User: What shape does this take?
Amino acid sequence: MSADYLYYSHEKLRNFIEQSKNADEGVLEYLRNVKYASVQDFAPGLEWFNTSEPLSFAKHLHGKIVVLDFFTYCCINCMHIIPDLREIESKFSVEDGLVVVGVHSAKFENEKISSNILAAVQRYNISHPVVNDANSEMWKNCDVHCWPTLLILGPSANPIVMLTGEGHKKDLIIYIKNTLKFYKDKGMISNHKLPIKSAYHLLPDLKGPLLFPGKVTNILDENNHEILAISDTGNNRILVLKEDGTVMEQIGGKKLGFKDGNFEDAEFNNPQGLTFQNKDVLFVADTENHAIRKIDFKTRTVVTVAGTGKQGDDQIGGQKGPLQSISSPWDLCIYRTRDMDLTFHPDGNPPIRDVLIIAMAGTHQIWALFLEDTVWWKCKKYMAGTCINIAGSGREENKNNSYPNSAGFAQPSGLALCQKNRELYIADSESSSIRRLSLADGKVTPVVGGDRNPQNLFAFGDKDGTLFDAKLQHALGVCITKDEKTLFVTDTYNHKLKRVEVTENTVSTITVPAEDTIDGTTSTFKEPAGICISIDNKKLYITDTNNHQIKVLHLNNKYNVIKIEKLELKSLEENKQKIKNSSYEIITGKPVKLNSTGGKIIFSIYLNLEKGLNLTNGAPQNWMVDLPDVTWSSVPKNGTDLTHIETTINVPNHINYKEQYVDFLFDLLTCTTDTCLPKCFLIKIPIKFEATGKSNVTENINLVMNSSDIKVL
Assistant: This one.
């Protein structure tokens, strides 16, 4: 550990706070004494995201308090920091003098590729500037040692303090507030703007409604028809489909949030894993809400059955459902076990109990939610609703052990149940391995990938083989065949599909037919994450996350892929969205012409207030997009920042379209010098489809508003 690292130590700042009357005075006293040499500037030629030009300390960041967030996008702890940074940025703006810069210093080789970082920036809704520190130059210059690390810099790129790990939000707010005050009093803070440009405009022409789909699962309905459920993660919604791609239900998706209720009003935050308990109940791992949600198709409601909506750090559990805090659940499966309490079942036929198994990525553990009163391991009774850790110490490691609580996982992200053998197969993403948990006695054993050394989380690669000789790269998805002998794995960062023979502990790469690849390329997948096998064992459904698609792979009786196709999603008439609130004043804008085959429209909306009208300071101001049906998508779909609204709308190929409408809804609270004026209005934009129209359109909308009138220019 170098001396510079000790200079930046958080411990020194804490000592000043402890010796002072209060935290504010302690930080100010620390700033009077701290004198570190400025860090080196960003190297030229690096790729930047969310900016229109590369940033530098000399030009753009001089006069700003800068928070460097050293992260790698696979890391769950890095993901946990993003909401904290988002909240901090809402308190202190660029004009106030604060800039957050994400410094992406990759762990995996796949994460060094700029297009993959761009997808992660879009997927996790990161709006601040991000730089691809592919060779870890800034990481080394700042003497960073782990992910995540935050380094606060003064207005001359002078280091203030370094914080490692997660959970520093309260400290960060105190440090930033006082650092801004300290340097403002010295006249060293500038209010200049930065060349910010949202990375959303770089989204591909999706030609479909999905945005970074996460997981997929299936079940047979009452007519023995296969039904699919997809976590449309980037759109914060769940879609339920017929086998032919017809969307039967859309649950959530109106906006990001945490809200129970009916299908239209319910809100999710980056949902991932899902599993059917039966045809009427679907459970969802609502990952960034740190909750398990239950979708009831009979009552058409969503309820929270575990989690508080806020990240927890409990590694033991035992509370009832919504009282039990959890951390980043990533995948789910239903395990059916016989009740072990034979006292009340003298005939030897105890009832079957349903247990929801949870891959708890945030605490590196496997948890269970008991859906019924159940007597399980060691004849211990768990009351219905109890949510508890069943395997994993909570330490991030690749440790196999005969005792479940002594074993260690590293961000478990995918689950596949072997019901007959009572075994659970786990995609342990950060160790790049597949692991096995016995649901009979809790023993954890290796299958393929990873390393014998439980501390080595860098044993990744792309190599077929047996046990530790085989290598994967951040695998996220697993599913198992009906005979429970063959496991399919989405080898996510290798962009491949792998097959594991579970009794032999071997893995092999599955070749996809070249003539069936998409868009003429041989790289069919881009970070595939979720996978399930059809009920008849003849197809694989894969969420091809960064291609924003569901791929259907047809199998022969030897489980070779003989055909691959994209699942085209179609809308039912009843899925079309309708604005229920008649209180909106409707204003029609000028039509936008688009090619008949669909495409992409980037809308930029500028709000101009005149004649003494202003937005009420501190009041909520909201906008959202309402689209014709579920096959359209918009990124973002809503927001609260009115200074510059930019949204990218992807329009599917519907040859029967002649004209559709995109609606922008505004709920504003404005004021003049003597009165408050709520403004609820809807801008209706006609979309006209023409054979000669462009497939990529940029449209600017200028709203001019005073106390009595609203115009679209």
In short: DSSP finds seven helices and 48 strands in the chain.
